[in-house]
Amino acid sequence: MADHTPESTIPQALGRSEPGSSPPPAHRGGRWRLRLRVTWAVTSIILTESVILGLSVLPAVSFWTWVYQWRMIPEWAQVLTMAMAFVPAYVLFATSVLLYSALVTRLFGWRTRPGLALPLAEMSWPVLDWGRYLMTIHVARTFAGPVFRSTPIWTVYLRLNGATIGRGCWVNSLKLMDHSLLEFGDRVTIGSDASVSGHMIEHGLLKTAPVRLGRHVTIGINSVVGIGTTVGDHTQVGALSVVPKHSHLDANAVYAGAPVRCVKRGGVRVNDADSDDVA
Ligand SMILES: CC(C)(COP(=O)(O)OP(=O)(O)OC[C@H]1O[C@@H](n2cnc3c(N)ncnc32)[C@H](O)[C@@H]1OP(=O)(O)O)[C@@H](O)C(=O)NCCC(=O)NCCS
Fold first, then answer.
1. What is the tally of structural domains in the chain?
2. CATH (domain of 99)
3. Which of 26, 188, 234, 239 is least buried, going by the fewest C-beta atoms within 10 A?
4. How far is the CA of 124 from the centre of ligand 1 (A)?
C-alpha cells in the first residue's frame, strides 16, 4: 500500500529544517539535547562493552597463565600445551561474553519495545535503548556466535537476553535480532542464516513488532521473516523465502517463495489460484 505521509512532514519528522532557514531557538536547544543523548548512549555502550569483554577475557587469560606456569615440563611441551590451551580458553571467553551480555541488558533494561514507529533521526530514548540492545547482541554474536550457534548454549543465551523460547528448539542462525520480541513454541527450528527480527527501518522510521512462531515450526535456510508475523503450529517455511511483515501463516501448512505463498495445507498441494492467502 502507498505511504500517505505528506512530503512536507518528512523533514520535520526527521528533525531537518528547510535549506537556508536558521532553526528556531527551541529547536537549537533540542539539538543540544539530542547531541547529549547520543554522546551518552555511545559512551555508555563503549564503557559497557569494554567491561563485558574485559571481564570475559579474564578467565581465559587466567587459564592460559596457569598453563604457562607449568614449569615441570620441557620448553617444547610447554609451547605445545599453550597452543592446545587456546581453544578451551576461547570457549571460556565466549561463554563469559554471552553471560555478561545478557546480564547487562537485563540490568539496564535495554530491550526492543513492541509497537514503535519512531523517526530514527530524532534519536529518542526508546531508539537509543534499542540501539544499545542491538549493539550488545551484535558484539555477543560476533565473538561467541560462531562457536555456539545451533547448540543449546545459543538458545539459553537468547532466552537470558529476553526471548521466549520453548523446549527443544534449534537456532542455526546469527541473524536473530530484537530477542525481546521473539516468541517461539516448542521444537522450533531456525535454518541456517534465516533472518528473524522484531524491527524494520522504513522511510526513516524505526518500526517494531513481535514475531510469534508456533510449536514445531521450521523456518527454511536463508529466509527472511518480517516483523509482526505469526506462524501457526507445525508449519514449514521453505528455504530462501520472504514472509512479508504482519503476515499470518496458517497451522499445518507449507509456505514458500518470495513473497511466500501456501504450497501445501494439511499435507495436500494447494493450487496457485487458491494460494493467495497470506493475510
Ligand atoms: C518448502 C519445502 C518444505 C517444501 O517441501 P515439500 O513439502 O516436499 O514440497 P515440494 O517439494 O513437493 O514442493 C511443493 C511446491 O513448492 C515449491 N517449492 C518448494 N520449495 C520452495 C522454495 N524454497 N521456494 C519456492 N518454491 C518452493 C515447489 O516447486 C513445488 O511447486 P509446484 O507445486 O508449483 O510444483 C522444501 O522445499 C524446503 O524449502 N525445505 C527447506 C528446509 C530447510 O531449510 N530447513 C531448515 C533446516 S536445514
1. 1
2. 2.160.10.10
3. 26
4. 43
Instruction: Name the residue at shortest CA distance from atom 20 of ligand 1.
Output: 238
Question: Which ligand 1 atom sits closest to the C-alpha of 255?
Answer: 1
Q: Residue 236: CB within 6 Å of ligand 1?
A: yes
Q: Angle 231-233-237 (CA atoms, 0-180°, nearest 5)?
A: 50
Whether the per-residue pLDDT at 9 is higher than 80: the answer is no
90 is in which domain, residue-wise? 32-274
**Residue 11 counted as domain residue:** no
pLDDT of residue 3: 37
Q: Which amino acid is at 8?
A: S
The answer, yes or no, to whether any atom of ligand 1 lies below 6 A from the CB of 239, is: yes
Is 270 touching ligand 1 by the criterion CB < 6 Å? no
pLDDT digits (tens, 9 = 90+) for 196-241: 999 999 999 999 999 999 999 999 999 999 999 999 999 999 999 9
CA 278 to ligand 1 centroid distance, Å: 17
If you measure from the C-alpha of residue 182 to the centroid of ligand 1, how many angstroms do you get, rounded to a whole number?
Answer: 25
- State the Cα–Cα distance between residues 211 and 226, nearest whole angstrom: 8
DSSP β-bridge partners for residue 211: 182
